[in-house]
Amino acid sequence: DAGVIQSPRHEVTEMGQEVTLRCKPISGHNSLFWYRQTMMRGLELLIYFNNNVPIDDSGMPEDRFSAKMPNASFSTLKIQPSEPRDSAVYFCASSPTGASPRGTFGSGTRLTVV
Amino acid sequence: SQQGEEDPQALSIQEGENATMNCSYKTSINNLQWYRQNSGRGLVHLILIRSNEREKHSGRLRVTLDTSKKSSSLLITASRAADTASYFCATWPQGGSEKLVFGKGTKLTVNP
User: Is the pLDDT assigned to residue B5 strictly greater than 90?
Assistant: First the structure.
C-alpha cells in the first residue's frame, strides 16, 4: 500500500483564490482526518469522517473551509476564499475503525497564501 | 483545544545519550500514543500505551503512563543523529469519539 496520498505537496496562491487539497486514504481505513499544523497552534484537528460521513467538524475555523468525502477513497478540503492566515501545512490521516484510532499520516500539503 | 502538552519544547543532546520527553493531559483517556515527525514530513506512529498499562517498550523506546498524574514520558535510549525529529503525544479521550488530540511536540536534536 502506498500509504495516505496527499496532493499537491506545495501550493502557493493569492489571497481570495479558492484552494482545494486532496487526500486518498489507505484502502480499508474507515476514518479520515484533516489536520492543520502551524508553529503557533501546533496540530489542530479540523474535521474527521467515519465511513464517508462527517462526524465532527468543530475544528473547522470558519465557513470558508469545507470538506467532502464523496467515497471511501477520496476526500477534499476546500478553502474559499483563501487568506494569508490560512498558510499552514495541512495533513490528512486515515485510521481503521476499531479498538483505537491510530493515524497514518500523509506527507502533507504546504499552503502559502500571499 | 490541545489536551496533550509536551515538555520540554526543545531538547538538544549528544549522540549516545538518553532523551526523555514528557506529556501531560487533562481528561481521562483510553490510550496515549507517541508520534514522530521528521522535518517536512507527516507524523509516524511510534507506540501506543493503554490506560491500564504503566510501561511499554519498543526497541530503544520506553513509554510510561501515570494516569493518576495524567502524564506520560517517552525515553529514547542510546540516541542517534537519525532520532532528530519532533515528537508528539496524542491522547484518545474517553467518550466514544475517534478523535486523537495532539500536543505541540518536543523538538529533539541529537548532535553527532
Answer: no
Q: What is the pLDDT of residue B103?
A: 86
CB contact under 8 A, B98 and A43: no
Q: Which residue has the higher pLDDT, B9 or A6?
A: A6
Amino acid at B91: T
Partner-chain contact B101 A45, CB within 8 Å: yes
pLDDT in the model for residue B2:
37
Contact A97 B98 (CB under 8 A): yes
Which among A42, A100, A107 is the nearest to B102, CB-wise? A42
Q: Minimal Cα distance from B98: which residue of A?
A: A101
Indicate the residue of B42, B44, B98 with minimum beta-carbon distance to A31. Answer: B98
* Location of C-alpha cell 479540523: A46
**Long-range contacts, stretch A53-62, CB < 8 angstroms, 24+ apart:** A55/B97, A55/B98, A56/B97, A56/B99
Find all residues with CB under 8 Å of B45, minimum gap 6, and list them: A102, A103, A104, B33, B35
How far the first Cα of chain B sits from its last, in Å, is 36
Query: What residue type is A90 in one-letter code?
Result: Y
Residues of B in contact with A33 (CB under 8 A): 99-100
Q: Could you tell me what percent of chain A has a pLDDT over 90?
A: 77
Number of H helices, E strands in chain B: 0, 11
